[in-house]
Amino acid sequence: MDMTERSPEFPVATTPAPGVMGVDWEQRVDFDRLRSYRLARARQALEESDLGALLVFDTANIRYLTATHIGYWAFNKMERWALLTRTGEPWIWDFGSAARVHKMQAPWLVPEQSVGGNTGLAGSIGPETGLVTRAVREIRDVLHDEGVAGMPVGVDMAEAEMFLELGRAGIEVRNGQQTMLAAREIKSQDEIVLLTQASAMVDGVYQDIFEALKPGVRESDIVALANKKLYEMGSEHVEAINSIAGERCSPHPHVFSDRLIRPGDTAYFDIIQAHNGYRTCYYRTFVVGRATQAQRDAYKRAREWIDAAIALVKPGTTTDEIAGVWPEAEEFGFPDEMEAFGLQFGHGVGLAVHERPVISRLNSIDTPIELKEGMFFALETFCPADDGRSAARIEEQVVCSAEGPKVVTLFPAEELMVANEY
Q1: What pLDDT is stored for residue 75 in this prediction?
Q2: Helices marked H in 213-339
Q3: 159: left (phi over 0), alpha (psi -120 to 50) or beta
Q4: Mapped to the 3 state alphabet, what secondary structure does 144-196 carry?
Q5: pLDDT for the residue 8
Q6: Where are the strands (E) in 226-354, listed by range?
Q7: Low-confidence spans in the chain with pLDDT less than 50
Q8: Segment holding 55, helix H or strand E
Q9: Contact yes or no for 265/287 (Cβ under 8 A)
Q10: Strand order in 404-407's β-sheet?
Q11: What pLDDT is recorded for position 9?
């Protein structure tokens, strides 16, 4: 396939992906505007709820509220948390010296509201030390001082001991994750640029993967190549590289191995990484050396399913309409929608790899939600081949705009590409 050629049916409308360096001569990402937008969205969601405050331990939510980040080693260890009340500015309790660093480097935070915190390192320091009790006491004091004591507090996720201690302190806990996801579902212009830049990075990785695919290369070698390339391009974190080939393609194992890639293998990949916090989830499928008719047929069906879904993306479409164009689980070899979940699939992408909307036959047929302008999400399809071993996996990331879908994943996928063709 001529990689510069595009099918006329392929939706080529996309969003800008400017350089990532700050410059004075071009409008790029305005990070002050980004921080203000996110905090305003959270305040609006809080105001529309019955909560007095949001207490968040999920690192994506902490970043959304406070624009702080101390590395992915701290990812969801429940060892740092943020609090936003209806009346106050964000608080951050962070890991040791990180709190002092925020006072120096994050002027958008109230300095006195960046403090050290510790809940026991996921239980490694036992609750008998009183660390969780102290944390809850400090949270309770803020709730009192900011006039929301007695109102429910929305918590996204936490250790069991934290939930128990909040209850002992008389704090009514509600589900704060739903409030935060409501805030995060509509992306600003700056978020969409960051998500598009992240996708552009993966475009480049797929060029390298396409050139490297040949017999004798291991699935794990492609994982190494992708990690190296992404970090060279400035990726903040490579969360996962799915690298699947040959008979491992069907059913999808969702994990790479050290399997040697062989002539005629289907190989598909998913690249999940973060650029300034904003993720990608971006599959592509190739065949190594030569392709069979069964492999081409599977790819054609997967492409038809994803194109049908993309064509429906516009404000006002409901997620059951999109899920309805995808085959039922039994049609592609699964006993029910639970076991087929994640194969014909859509999911929001932002500071986390799974946000709203989530689209599948498992949840969307009976409980649909409406697409809104500014949603950014991935659509992905899977089709097993008739040979019993190969499969096709395609994923496109799209913006829901007033003009319809804008596709930001641009590495060619209109038809099955053969790497290093014989």
Answers
A1: 87
A2: 219-232, 293-311, 319-323
A3: beta
A4: HHCCCCCCCEEECCCCHHHHHHHHHCCCCEEEHHHHHHHHHCCCCHHHHHHHH
A5: 45
A6: 237-245, 266-275, 278-279, 282-288, 345-348
A7: 1-8, 10-11
A8: strand 53-56
A9: yes
A10: 355-359, 345-348, 376-384, 391-401, 404-407
A11: 54
- The two structure tokens encoding residue 21: 């360096």
Write out the H or E segment, with its range, that includes residue 92.
strand 91-95
Query: Got the DSSP string for 107-140?
Result: TTS-GGGEEEE-S-TTTTS-GGG-HHHHHHHHHH
Amino acid at 201: M
Angle between helices 131-145 and 160-168 (to 10 degrees): 50
| Tokens of residue 180, six digits | 């935060």
Is the pTM here over 0.90, yes or no? yes
Residues 240/270, Cβ–Cβ less than 8 Å: yes
- Tokens representing 350 are 């932002």
- Burial classification of residue 260, based on how many CB atoms lie within 10 Å of its CB (0-12 exposed, 13-18 middle, 19 or more buried): middle
The string of DSSP letters for 375-406 reads: -EEEEEEEEE-TTSS-EEEEEEEEEEETTEEE
Distances (CA, A) of 332 to 228, 344, 366, 378: 35, 10, 21, 21
What residues contact residue 212 under an 8 Å CB cut-off, 6+ apart?
Answer: 221, 222, 225
* Pair of tokens at residue 388: 């019993």
Contact status, residue 349 vs residue 280, Cβ threshold 8 Å? yes
Bridge partners for 175 per DSSP: 155
182: left (phi over 0), alpha (psi -120 to 50) or beta: alpha
Q: Angle 59-66/31-47 helices, nearest 10 degrees?
A: 110
Read off the amino acid at residue 355.
E
112 CB contacts (<8 Å, ≥6 apart)? none
- What is the Cα–Cα distance from 237 to 205, expressed in whole angstroms? 15
User: Other CB atoms closer than 10 Å to residue 115's CB: what's the count?
Assistant: 15
Q: Dump pLDDT digits (tens) for 189-228.
A: 999 999 999 999 999 999 999 999 999 999 999 999 999 9
Q: Are 282 and 378 in contact (CB under 8 A)?
A: yes
